[in-house]
Write a structure and sequence with these properties.
Blueprint (H helix, E strand, L loop, with lengths): L14 E9 L5 E4 L7 E3 L12 E6 L11 E8 L4 E8 L3 E6 L8 E4 L11 E8 L8 E7 L5 H12 L8 H8 L7 H5 L2 E2 L5 E5 L8 E7 L5 E8 L1 H4 L5 H9 L3 E3 L2 E3 L4 H7 L7 E11 L5 E12 L2 E4 H10 L5 H20 L8 E7 L5 E8 L2 H22 L2 E2 L2 E2 L4 E3 L5 H12 L10 H14 L6 H11 L4 E3 L23 H15 L8 H31 L6 E10 L2 E6 L5 E5 L9 E4 L4 E4 L5 E3 L3 E10 L4 E7 L32
Parallel strand pairs: 11-18, 12-19
Antiparallel strand pairs: 1-2, 1-4, 2-3, 4-5, 6-7, 6-9, 7-8, 9-10, 12-13, 13-14, 14-17, 15-16, 17-18, 20-21, 22-23, 24-25, 26-27, 26-32, 27-28, 29-30, 30-31, 32-33
Helix pairs in contact: 1-14, 8-9, 10-12
Length: 678
């Protein structure tokens, strides 16, 4: 509340708010405050040692306005966006400076000579921010990695991770803590767990996986039902709340999967050794165990800590071969699990889940990490088998926790929620789909989901399949973590969480801890769940951006070998400045710029039709159209491919007069090659 002075006038109001600092290329700062339309402007002299992307507290002298931009001063750095930076070393006689290579203005770091780790003048390095106290004129840093110029690919991948705010290594304190962790299975711990070591158990993962965080067990029961266990690595047994290890896991919040490497959330000793459910080893797990009929009816669910012994490590391809041939190691239980998974899947779609298919593009790399081939993998029965049982476990845990109340209030819990489609995106898509004869029932959310599924089924094999599938995905909201449970629209679940991947996702660790507290009736309610959920959602988004950047780099690196060559492609996005094309063979996306089409016509964006349209000829380039392109340029530094449109030999459009006026219109979102993460 503002106070009045003796004259009865209001004195200036001082308010401190939290937000994220965005520094423009000009050097001016803007603090983005959630729920406030206008950012708070901060001049460079008032950054108070904050960097671009940092979470800060900013003091707004005239009081925060909901619709008017205010000026402020940063009074505290709450959380650093990143602590490692890429740049170059500049040597002096007794010390060195580190000059960050960033688009956003960042001051030089002071680096003592004993903190150079062997770096020499002008070396490209990764430097960690050690401190920047009020008494220090410049940030203090130390060199953690020297980037070798001959390994351009390695440097590029590291830069992508650093830009996204993911450290390349773990601190000495973290590794010292990890070193103390014991792999020994103790008798005392076994007494507190359900023993599944004598029951058939196996893992199913990609061929190159090293962190196996889920396994399935199966046995027949005397009553004719099956007992199927979904066993998840018990990471929370090793990563205790409040430890240094827990702190860094939370800061990262997720592993990042680039084409040639994994940047793990947890050190390798945990992810690939202690917690990885490797074959023929006893392992601690947290499990969801179901009693299931042959009609896929769940008769009973048990949740708790267990110990398992995996009998075999399967790859997806091996399991797919067993399913298709109905023969091979453990073929009977695998075929049975597949049949049950199909029934679960059918029931999900019946109850409102949306059947978007997923596609994975993987690069074949040589020993130096350079792409020599691209493989497009469809999701097959083996993948869907694992997916359905993981969904079953995630749903069971969320349903159980949702029923527990403290003082008639739900307990703070990281639900994985997915909102209904945004009307602003849905309505133009529905109108566009109608042009192809697909009518949507819009009277409620379930009807919309049913209409989506009907369209996705009917469109198979038709020319418009690609555009409608991809635009359909774009209408969907993003799945996020929050303690406010509104359900998961895309999956058709009232209750859902992430329980099954604690090696690579921090929310799963939080779920494990809260679940154990519920089971043991020792709830320790902590404040700040929503803030933790938001942090994990933000980190997930940054990881996905890094993964896309890594894939884009590999696409450019691969297509550099095909400069001047022609390929068939499909238009995957349109904007006022051109249209994007994804090659059919390699799934590599590039831009055909409007400026390269001026000899044919003056093209303008028609947002309603997801197309660029020639003003004189009516020539259209619409999302989903097949086109022929030539690879014109490939820039690794920009991670950008430029294509040229190749005419099909038919009559060309009449040349249009060149205009200096700029084309208008918002870009239509580019299609994605992968379905949204659940």
């Amino acid at each position: 509340m503002s106070k009045k002075n003796k004259a009865g006038k209001k004195s200036s109001q001082i308010e401190t708010v939290k937000g994220r600092l965005d520094i423009s290329k000009s050097g001016m700062g803007y603090v983005i405050v959630e729920g406030v339309a206008k950012d708070v402007m901060v001049r460079p002299n008032d950054f108070n040692r904050a960097f671009h992307g940092d979470m800060v507290r900013v003091q707004v002298n005239s009081g925060l306005s909901r619709d008017k931009r205010q000026e402020g001063k940063i009074v505290e750095v709450v959380e650093r966006k990143q602590k490692e930076f890429i740049g170059n070393i500049q040597m002096s006689k007794n010390f060195a400076f580190f000059v960050p290579a960033t688009e956003k203005p960042i001051p030089d770091f002071y680096v003592a000579t004993d903190k150079l780790s062997g770096a020499k003048d002008n070396d490209r390095v990764v430097v960690k921010l050690v401190s920047w106290e009020k008494s220090e004129k410049k940030p203090i840093g130390e060199v953690v990695t020297i980037l070798k110029s001959e390994d351009e690919n390695d440097m590029a991948m590291k830069e992508i991770l650093i830009e996204a705010g993911f450290p390349l290594s773990f601190d000495k304190e973290v590794m010292a803590e990890v070193k103390k962790l014991q792999s020994h299975i103790s008798r005392e711990e076994i007494k507190n767990r359900k023993d599944f070591r004598d029951i058939l158990t196996f893992t199913i993962d990609p061929v190159d996986a090293k962190d196996f965080d889920d396994a399935i067990s199966i046995r027949n029961l005397d009553n004719g039902n099956y007992e199927i266990g979904v066993h998840i690595a018990d990471v929370s047994h090793f990563v205790k709340s409040g430890t240094i290890l827990d702190k860094i896991a939370y800061e990262r919040a997720t592993s990042v999967y680039l084409p040639d490497r994994v940047n793990p959330m947890l050190p390798e000793k945990i992810s690939n050794e202690l917690c990885s459910l490797r074959p023929r080893e006893d392992k601690y797990t947290f499990s969801a165990v179901f009693q299931i009929t042959n009609r896929a009816e769940i008769k009973h669910t048990w949740l708790g800590r267990t110990i398992i012994h995996s009998n075999h490590r399967f790859t997806y391809d091996e399991v797919q071969d067993i399913i298709e041939k109905n023969d091979g190691l453990h073929s009977k239980p695998i075929v049975l699990l597949n049949e049950l998974a199909k029934k679960f899947r059918a029931e999900r779609f019946k109850n409102g889940a949306i059947n978007f298919s997923s596609q994975e593009v993987r690069f074949q790399l040589d020993e130096k990490g350079k792409p020599i081939g691209i493989i497009v993998k469809e999701s097959k029965d083996a993948h869907k088998l694992i997916e359905e049982f993981m969904l079953l476990a995630n749903r069971a845990v969320a349903s159980y926790v949702s029923k527990i109340k403290v003082n008639k209030e739900p307990i703070p819990f990281p639900y994985r929620i997915h909102d209904t489609p945004d009307d602003e995106k849905l309505k133009p898509f529905v109108a566009f789909a109608k042009k192809f004869g697909y009518v949507f029932d819009m009277h409620d959310e379930r009807a919309v989901a049913s209409s989506f599924n009907k369209m996705l089924k009917d469109v198979q094999g038709k020319p418009e399949q690609h555009v409608l599938e991809q635009l359909g995905i774009r209408t969907m909201s993003k799945a996020v973590y929050t303690s406010t449970n509104i359900g998961h629209y895309g999956l058709g679940f009232e209750h859902y969480c992430h329980f099954t991947s604690p090696i690579r996702r921090y929310p799963d660790i939080m779920v494990h801890r809260i679940l154990q507290q519920c089971l043991s009736k020792e709830l320790k309610l902590k404040k700040g769940m929503d803030e933790r959920c938001k942090h994990c959602s933000d980190r997930e988004r940054k990881a996905m951006e890094a993964e896309r950047a890594g894939n884009k780099y590999k696409q450019v690196e691969f297509m550099k070998n095909y400069l001047g060559e022609e390929f068939d492609g499909i238009i995957s996005g349109v904007a006022s400045f051109g249209f994007f094309v994804e090659t059919v063979t390699h799934k590599c996306e590039g831009l055909v710029a409007v400026r390269d089409l001026v000899d044919y016509d003056d093209f303008r964006l028609d947002e309603a039709d997801y197309a660029l349209v020639g003003r004189n000829t009516g020539q259209k380039f619409r999302m989903g159209d097949k086109v022929r392109i030539k690879v014109a340029a490939a820039s690794l530094s920009k991670r950008q491919l430029d294509y040229e449109w190749v005419t099909d030999g038919k009559a060309k459009a009449k040349p249009a007069a060149k205009s200096k006026s700029k084309t208008k219109g918002k870009p239509v979102p580019k299609a994605k090659s992968k379905a949204k993460k659940k």
